[in-house]
Amino acid sequence: MSIDGVNSPDILAALTVVAALQASPIPWKGPIATSRVGAVKNGEVTFIVNPTEEDQKFSVLDLVVSSSEEKVVMIETRAEELKEDLI
């Protein structure tokens, strides 16, 4: 796997694992998808799906979600104080 220094390797790694499991005979309850949501404040809060590493430096929210078609299977987050209606 190559890291380009622009995009987060953790999201790519999660999607790569799903592809490998889908191609294997191992039984599992997949597939799942993983994405990251960031939020940048420039007066207003702007949400970014799969932000670049540069965007993440200025992000007030780092939310990673993995889900299947039916349910959310993982949520990880780091956030500065944000208004409840934004979350």
TrEMBL record:
<dbReference type="GO" id="GO:0005829">
    <property type="term" value="C:cytosol"/>
</dbReference>
<dbReference type="InterPro" id="IPR036345">
    <property type="entry name" value="ExoRNase_PH_dom2_sf"/>
</dbReference>
<protein>
    <submittedName>
        <fullName>Polyribonucleotide nucleotidyltransferase</fullName>
    </submittedName>
</protein>
<dbReference type="GO" id="GO:0006402">
    <property type="term" value="P:mRNA catabolic process"/>
</dbReference>
<dbReference type="InterPro" id="IPR012162">
    <property type="entry name" value="PNPase"/>
</dbReference>
<dbReference type="GO" id="GO:0004654">
    <property type="term" value="F:polyribonucleotide nucleotidyltransferase activity"/>
</dbReference>
<dbReference type="GO" id="GO:0000175">
    <property type="term" value="F:3'-5'-RNA exonuclease activity"/>
</dbReference>
<dbReference type="GO" id="GO:0003723">
    <property type="term" value="F:RNA binding"/>
</dbReference>
<dbReference type="InterPro" id="IPR015847">
    <property type="entry name" value="ExoRNase_PH_dom2"/>
</dbReference>
<dbReference type="Pfam" id="PF03725">
    <property type="entry name" value="RNase_PH_C"/>
</dbReference>
<feature type="domain" description="Exoribonuclease phosphorolytic">
    <location>
        <begin position="30"/>
        <end position="86"/>
    </location>
</feature>
<dbReference type="InterPro" id="IPR027408">
    <property type="entry name" value="PNPase/RNase_PH_dom_sf"/>
</dbReference>
<keyword id="KW-0808">Transferase</keyword>
